[in-house]
Amino acid sequence: MKFFIDTANLAQIKEAQELGILDGVTTNPSLMAKEGVVGKNNVLAHYKAICDIVDGDVSAEVISTDVQGMLREAEELCEIDPKIVIKIPIIADGIKAIKQLSAREIKTNCTLIFSSGQALLAAKAGATYVSPFIGRLDDISTEGLEIIEDIRAIFDNYGYTTEILAASIRGPMHIINCAKIGADVVTAPLSAITALLKHPLTDSGLAKFLEDAKKFNV
Ligand code: E4P
Fold first, then answer.
1. Rounded Cα distance, 137 and 134, in Å
2. Whose CA is nearest to atom 9 of ligand 1?
3. Residue nearest to ligand 1 atom 6, measured at CA
4. Maximal CA-CA distance, the chain
5. Taking the model in full, what pTM does it have?
């Protein structure tokens, strides 16, 4: 399973990259705004800074809602770096834009997916990734993981190569459950990724080993 980090924070992206397990980055306009990145030139420069840190795909989201605007933005974003993946919302114009970009072999990430039907349409249009938001479904008392299961079954039935990029991850159990179901990618905050490292028996076991090691170090 691929690990993406879901942030526009350069320090956190560097930390995940240094851990050696990072396969890519996803951003969205809210995450960019959270880092205080405003103005078109600053946004483009920030995407470049992210691309310079990581080896893998970097999703950059369009803010147009019409197909021509999306395609225009895609052109500009693609010029930043070959790692850029065009992130497009699942609306009718989004599907049209994905279809055109996929015909030109430009990678796309179809975002704001909340149903398996939406994911099916995005795959049919040729999206590279679909991003089902499981945490936001959990937030409204709906089992977010079920959508990952449904999309996995549908894509496997027809051999769609579109990758399931589980998004809106809230914690380590989301990551583990997505891996059990067979999501291709999870995009998670750094805290959810590093939480996978933690176990109290590891901490106490290591403390005991280090204590005992002092006996033969003297
Ligand atoms: C997906 O790519 C989005 O950036 C993200 O996962 C949304 O997560 P949130 O529900 O925590 O905002």
1. 5
2. 168
3. 168
4. 72
5. 0.96
pLDDT one digit per residue (tens) for the chain, 218 residues: 999 999 999 999 999 999 999 999 999 999 999 999 999 999 999 999 999 999 999 999 999 999 999 999 999 999 999 999 999 999 999 999 999 999 999 999 999 999 999 999 999 999 999 999 999 999 999 999 999 999 999 999 999 999 999 999 999 999 999 999 999 999 999 999 999 999 999 999 999 999 999 998 76
Residues with CB under 6 A from ligand 1: 6, 26, 28, 111, 131, 133, 135-136, 167-168, 187
Please name the residue that has the structure tokens 């003297």: 218
30 CA closest ligand 1 atom index: 12
Return the ligand 1 atom nearest residue 170 CA: 11
Residue-wise DSSP of 6-56: E---HHHHHHHHHHT---EEE--HHHHHHTT--SHHHHHHHHHHHHHH-SS
CA distances (Å), origin 69, targets 20, 33, 81, 161, 190 = 37, 21, 20, 27, 32
Kindly report the backbone phi and psi dihedral angles of residue 191, in degrees, each rounded to the nearest multiple of 5, phi listed first.
Answer: -60, -35
Q: Is 87 labeled as catalytic in the residue annotation? A: yes
Which numbered atom of ligand 1 lies nearest the CA of 188?
A: 6
Q: Which of 48, 87, 208, 214 is catalytic?
A: 87
Quick one: residue 39, left, alpha or beta (phi over 0 = left, psi -120 to 50 = alpha)? left
